[in-house]
What does this fold into?
Amino acid sequence: MPALTRKEVEEIALLARVHLEPNELAAMEKDLGDILEHFAALASVDTTGVSPMTHAVPLDLRLRPDEVAPSLPVAEALRGAPAKQGDVFVVPAIIGPGEPK
Amino acid sequence: MTEWLTAAETAKAIAAGELKAVHVVDRYLERIRDVDRGVKAYLAIDSEGAHAAAVEVDRRRAAGERLPPLAGVPISLKDVLVTKDLPTTAGSKILEGFISPYEGTVVEKLRAAGAIILGKVNCDEFAMGSSTERSAYQQTKNPWDRTRVPGGSSGGSSASVAAGLCAASLGTDTGGSIRQPAAFCGVVGIKPTYGRVSRWGVVAFASSLDQVGPLTRTIHDAALMLEIISGFDPRDSTSLDAPVPTYTDALVGDVNGLRVGLPHEYFGDGIDADVRAALDGTIAALRDRGAITVDISLPHTHLALPAYYIVAPAEASSNLARYDGIRYGKAAQGAKDLLDLYMKSRGAGFGPEVKRRIMLGTYALRSGYYDAFYKKAQQIRTLIKRDFDKAFQHVDVILTPTTPTAAFRLGSKASPYEMYLADVFTLSCNLAGLPGLSVPCGLTSEGLPVGAQLLGKPLDEATLLRTGHVIESLVGLVGKHPGGL
It folds into this structure.
């Protein structure tokens, strides 16, 4: 498995939504490269026809009855929010004033 | 000396009126104040709540009420189990001050059984680590030697039980996080079959691997606690709807005719000589009691580590997407837009190991990479599971060392990969979804505990407990406690 480039590390950090400082990017490039080297063993294993594992004990997906049940009260759900207003979470604007409706 | 009683002994003495629950709880709280300064197991202590719960147990007894099985037994909880009256941090700055609006199923079950929660104990951030050094809050020490790690990620749980700072604890195990710290601190730890215990109200790390289990002074306590926390929970879609045996009934003290598999992949080079000697002693003791040892092979063992470090980070990268700085947890100040809020909150809130695993998982799940990584690793899990299925046609239980060495020194694992190797013997069990148990089986020449690991068939925790009980009685550490606390 090839080592990662700095550019790839930056792309993954963006995908992962994690800001990394320049020193963290450098460390990540090295650490991930080292770890991925040890994964090379997997590629050489023949897994043709082997189904991916899902559960230790065979288990069908279970459906629950479609019944109305109490959920978390809004005030409780909002209690830990860093920013809230009335009954809603507050987030930065995601549509700018100049963008099409 | 109530602090060295087992959970079962404590409950019995309280039910019989020989001890007051208030006396027991206050004694533990006093010890936490005195001893935990040196051990640093607890992140949050509920002195008032615990005292009040003990008063209530004593009142119920005085009123002639029938007490539940753990009435008055003081326990600690790994800080990934959510609680309504205490903060839950998962060892992370991103959850600093977070108080859950609901409680985990296992917490509800223990409370209903009468257990008294003393507080929440330390762990590696989001349970990612093998030493508890990756906690964002404090460094928990091994009570047997405070220059060494207590193991991890449930290091606060193992240290609090070993140091007499609770009668028992609950931890979680994704790749060895109950068994490895249990081995390092000389206590019993069991990771149940995947699906045996509900994951509702457990801070998610890797959802296809995570299980909750007890860390205790004795096998009997582990059996008692496991029985209480096990069982079907409609709130966990992977929960198994299977009857829960009376696990304490399995402790018959007999292994005559039991077939014990010894996989040569777990007894090769790289095992510390003292660990090997302790295991040799354990094997000899079991044979002496009539157990039949069988040499077996689990040929895909060497693939467990790479497969684990794809599956676990991939699932973690998805699970940890919920920490967005919006609904709960820490938010960065002065973010200019939504993306910036996500990036900065997560960049500031997560520690280095968590970032590494999120990055690794995001890399593995990237568009076009799924087949090469996650799917491949899941196929390797099937191969590992088949190894076990084949072995269990010939043996009833598998015995290995829990760890290649006893507890290592604080700060001694230089690279991330070196730390990952600390779990090399415990990962396969999670990947295959099997139950696994670690039981103390002796001390090294330096006086550090050694753990023997038992692996069993799915839902056959009873055989692990039965075998562990015999090991405990022959070569265990019951009644031996770390000195100098």
